[in-house]
Amino acid sequence: MSTDLVYLNGAFLPADEARVSVFDRGFLFADSVYEVIPFYQGVGFRLQQHLDRLAYSLRAVRIQIDADWPGILNELVQRNGGGNLSVYLQISRGSAGSRTHAYDDAMAPTVFACCSPIQDIYARGADQVRGYTVIVTADLRWHRCDIKSTGLLPNILVLQQAREAGADEALLVRDGLLSEGTSCNLFLIRQGVIYTPKRSSEILGGTTRELILELAAEAGIPFQEVDIRPEALQDADEVWVSSSTRGVIPVLAIDGKPVADGQKGPLWRQMFDLFTRFQHRLMTGEIR
Ligand code: PDD
């Protein structure tokens, strides 16, 4: 499977032939928004939800663009051989041919998309999923984390801090409350109830987070969207993180201490199973 073809401003071309201006505002100012969308067997997973969030991000940063996103992304995936791919789509405000903070609405946005292979997490089964270890640290980001902006420097620095501590992810704390991970949402389970930080401008409204809550509602698993203090992690029965490319992942240790008995929890196994069945229904065309 080739993943070398990218999409840039209306053309499909080999990655090493794609060129963007050095004055592109995405490059100079991270003046751009993005999405990461998994495709399994060539089918977009929650594609509409991703496109709805993209429209939200574009509106929030006032980039105006109309495009047939499903058409472009499906064609990119097909041209790269279909299969299991993660699609990255980035739209920057474009280039004015010089570096100036102020922008002109007439500028043409730069649209870039590429694919990379991903594993079908659900095909492997719950026992194959590797649980995470995480650290807890300060959330250094701006106050519009609901916008999926490419300005990811705080996320990158903190993830690196986690990696250097031998952990997979970092859970972020702002004003005494947990927000999310550097590229994932957060869930805490206690006595059969799923708790997750409520949606606000302090977190990204994750499409996987939304799906977890939908599946929990369908299965009759109680959940609450609430403020969560980091101390609550100490007596959690289970902790999970979620993202599009990783699905729902159990957190087995936090700051070097095991979560409960340090094993994947029963509610996580149930949720993983609900995800697997959901994905199967999507693949077979039973749902869209
Ligand atoms: N990240 N929170 C943050 C800060 C994220 O960057 C992401 C996704 C999520 C989960 O959102 P979703 O379930 O829609 O993927 C939460 C993507 C995968 C990334 O940056 O690569």
Overview of this structure, please?
With 288 residues, this protein is an alpha+beta fold. It has two domains: 114 residues, Aminotransferase class 4, branched-chain amino acid transferase, N-terminal domain (D-amino Acid Aminotransferase, Chain A, domain 1); 160 residues, D-amino Acid Aminotransferase, Chain A, domain 2 (Alpha-Beta Barrel), CATH 3.20.10.10. Helices cover 27% and strands 29% of the residues. It is built from seven helices and 15 strands. The radius of gyration is 19 Å and the shape is globular. The structure holds N-(5'-phosphopyridoxyl)-D-alanine. N-(5'-phosphopyridoxyl)-D-alanine (PDD) binds next to helix 6 and strand 13. One of its GO terms (molecular function) is transaminase activity.
- CATH topology of the largest domain, anyone? D-amino Acid Aminotransferase, Chain A, domain 2
Net shape: globular
The H/E string reads EEHEEHHEEHEHEEEEHEEEEH
Task: Give me the CATH architecture of the largest domain, please.
Answer: Alpha-Beta Barrel
Please give the CATH class of the largest domain. Answer: Alpha Beta
Name given to the CATH homologous superfamily of the largest domain: D-amino Acid Aminotransferase, subunit A, domain 2
Query: Which ligands are bound?
Result: N-(5'-phosphopyridoxyl)-D-alanine
How large is the radius of gyration? 19 Å
Number of helical segments with 4 or more residues: 7
Domain tally? 2
Helix percentage range: 25-40%
What is the mean pLDDT?
A: 96
